[in-house]
Amino acid sequence: MAEYTNVEKPFLEKLRQAHWEVIDQGQGIPVDPAKSLRSSFGEVALKAEFMRSVGALNLWATPKQLEYCYERISLQGNKKLLEANKDVFRMLRKGITLPDKNILTGEENPTVMLVDFEIGHTDRNSFIAMNQFRVDTPTTAKSFIIPDIVCFVNGMPWIVIECKDLYTAEPLSDAFTQIRRYSNQRDDDYYAIDEGKESLFYTNLFNVITHGTEARFGAIRSEFDYYNNWIDIFPEKYKTVETENGGKHQEVIILGMFNHEILLDIFHNFTIYMEAKPGLEVKVICRYQQYRAVGKMIEGLQNGESFQDRSGVVWHTQGSGKSLTMVFLIKKMRDTFQLKDYKILMVVDRIDLESQLEETAHLAGEKVWTVSKKSGRAAHGRDEKVLAELGDDTADLNIVMVHKFGINQDMSADALFRLGVVPRYETFDELSKSEKVLILVDEAHRSQNGDMSNNLFMAFPRATRIGFTGTPLITPRHKVTTAERFYQKNGEYIDTYKMNDAVADRATVDIKYIGKSTSDEISDKEVFDLEYEEIFKHRTEEERQEIQRRYGGMIEYLESMNRVKPIARDIMVHYVSEILSNGFKAMVVASSITAVVRYKVELERLIPEFLAAEQAKTDEERNEDLIRRLQILKVRAVVSMQSNNEPAIITQVRREGFGKGITDSFKKDFNTVDNGKSDTGIGILCVCDRLLTGFDAPIAQVLYMDKNLREHDLLQAIARVNRTKKGKTHGLVVDYFGITKNLNRALGIYTDADAEECKAELVEFGEYFKDINKEIPELELRYRKIVQFFEANKISEMDAFLRQTITNPWDEFKIVEEVIEMAGNLKLRAEFDTLIKNYFDRLDLLFNAPTVQREHWVPAKRIGYLMWRIRYHYKDDTLDLRWASAKVRHLIDKYLVHIGITERVEEVSILSEDFPLKIDSLYRGSKSKASAMEHAIRQQIKVKLENNDPALYRHFKDRLDNILNTYQGNWDMMIVELEQLRKEASMGRKEDYRISRIQAPFMDLMTEVLEEEKTVEMEQKIIDLTGFIFKYIKDGLQIANFWEKNDEKKKVAGQIEQRIRLSGIPSLKSKNKDLAMQMMMLAKNNYSEILNS
């Protein structure tokens, strides 16, 4: 089997090289639990290994005490899986406190350590990996599950690995689905709730899905999009393979995560449980760049000879998890003897960032102090301390908001500027000369942060300073300033994780921009740009008044209705057609609060007009999903209060947009089904200065920009649309101000010398932030690759077929059938799937461009038709368009409806008399007709019979395989035989006056394995036996919630076993347990029919 040979076996071999004890059980279904170190297949852990390993770590513990510990982690009652996993995680990390005492020392309530996490002690734990780990699940539709590989630490299953052959359809997605099935996490109502073994995942750290060439890891309950690659290996001493070009290969994840030291470190210091959104808790495992950055910071803190040597800057791009990196650093420091007594100060310069960082900091597992002017418990429930208290030697965690220590402590620098007040700051006294202080500065590049945090640096002159920046330090002056403040040497960072790294890792999406031309181009733009920049450099009152006098006129111009109204309409046209149709949301950035309010009012005024226009379209063109979203769409403005005398309209709009509920609504998916959840309808947020830093809303896909944002303000603002979300392939910036016309100037690059010095940074930024018009050649290239793919597989004229220039319909049919035959090769089908995904992703980006509509809408429709034909023929559900954007799906769905194919209506069943007519309408050649009939019959009997009547299913399957083997090449004769089989299958089970139709499947299970001669007397004996067994089953099913009551299930299974043993039929007697298990599964699958019989 290719899966075992190419993926599973190499994985095991690499684990062996990484010093895991490997038990390779080969292929096939295991039959002896002893080979997997267990007494039965019902056990999910290696109990004997647990008792031995944990006993060796706690030599004083008695067998009874070890048994108590084993039961504590194994028996979690009715807890949901994540809750059970979290509780067991705490036990594994902290140990289990016993209710009795240490018999050697007399200590009351001693703690048993289940794992030795101490550095240098990894060899005191056991590490075992085995494949084909069978776990019996007798009460589910399938009697057991067999994860490909399970890795055990001290006998406890920490990692489940699912391997798939590279050339199966959607191998990683298929492996992910299998992991979900094993852990009972599939939420689709189609699947039974109980189909796996949740207890296998109580001690789970993470899971791995792999096809060899690529491997990803994810925690329980993680969605597929949050299964990540581990593409670098740290510490460097373990990097024995090249990771530059092949970092996604499974060998890298093995060396990077399965190394004993690293694995225990990830468990102990780099795993947290957090609330992703209200009501949704998730388990988070660090990404590789977080582990690497923390490792480097720890090395620096341990080995740096001076506080300057221990300082530096971490550049991890926006959206890559910098705040969690700080949390992991704190956890690791508290776990490192040399560093656990550090006082830690986390410095921010914005109130919203303070709250956000405070919430995150609590994940470090210790009290977080907020530094203020007074101590005690604040009204908002936070623990506060005064500045002077930071001078003590306590190893605690503090958040410092630098604005609070100036004269204007309650207002941000932006607010002070708008009020025309020059901020003044008090100088801190020296509080401590200790070198056991670490200052972590978030958004270290921000100039105002620098001015104020320098006071804090003076208060702790010998503290280690580590700055975090999420935007590249492009300009020389920013590099120099940051280097001076954080003792950065030769421009070297502690660690870098750049924009394009994050895009390649699927941690963020890249961003495209559209430069819009407006009819009112600003005159003397260069002078205006320079004056805007000067605002932030001069602080004297005279300069401030002069610049505001001139600049005020420009602001009035930018917020004028003559400018706002046409831009608002253009925004709405683009948003409705390109963004809202895919279910995403938008932000509008304007130059002033007045402009923000006017954009809000105008955009909301346009909603009814666009709704009516969509409703007026023909059935073929109308988009019902878009209509439902427009019906609940709202626009809100999030702005600060100007003054007590602000205009009434601003007050009204500001109040509408006030409060956390507004941003929470914006972050939610549109809910057009439940009218009670209309708070999801806020689809556009209009802002001036608010929410442009630290605001994390993955649903935001586009930023409409009508403000002169520069340098880091620009970089941070555009990063609002780089967060990942299912179906979101890119972020988009639509520029109405004209910044993108001269990006170098917007980024602070004014001279050729500056550009040359920053060439590398500018090239990278150019790859990340691209003009959308440059993507049209890429779309054409992706289309040509599809055509070349078919030509390479001897299907010519594909370009003509896709562009509908072939005039002979028989030639078109011939091409379609050649495509279908080619798709019988799973490798080619998977390759085709990848090509069309790449093509449709780029088509979505450029969907409504006139040239794209002319050149690519028709080929896209024809490709969608080919996908439907392949899917219909091979019954391959992976070839649907669920992954495509709503715009592309709508285009293709409407086309399929137009040509008479309705995806949402069930296909014609093989049981229908119309089935032959359907086959004749879709196929011309005998070979393709025979192939279509084979796949239709195979799929139909599998769905209808495999679980509900397994014996009859095997009968028809054997008949089908025999026909295919006998008439291979004789397609006409094969069609005749397949038609006869179809008719037999459509009739189903033949009537038997001796036994009811619902009892017959139970009888067949025994008849199949009967070895004695099938005489009339023997048949009657089995019929009578079936009657007794059926009565036991039906009586059991009368009990309320029967399938949830293990004692009742065991009772019925025992009755079946006993009746078979007493039947007097030797061949059945020897198989009584297996037959009883199969009959219980059959009873569950036919539950309703049995009760109604």
UniProtKB/TrEMBL annotation:
- Name one molecular function that GO assigns to this entry: ATP binding
InterPro entries given for it? Answer: Helicase_ATP-bd, HsdR_RecA-like_helicase_dom_2, P-loop_NTPase, Restrct_endonuc_type1_HsdR_N, Restrct_endonuc_typeI_HsdR, SWI2_SNF2, Type-I_R_enzyme_R_subunit
Q: Which Gene Ontology biological process is one annotated for this entry?
A: DNA restriction-modification system
Domain Helicase ATP-binding, which positions? 303-490
Q: What is its EC number?
A: 3.1.21.3
Q: How far does the signal peptide extend, from start to end residue?
A: none
Q: How does it assemble?
A: The type I restriction/modification system is composed of three polypeptides R, M and S.
UniProt similarity note:
Belongs to the HsdR family.
Question: What function does the entry list?
Answer: Subunit R is required for both nuclease and ATPase activities, but not for modification.
Protein known as: Type I restriction enzyme endonuclease subunit
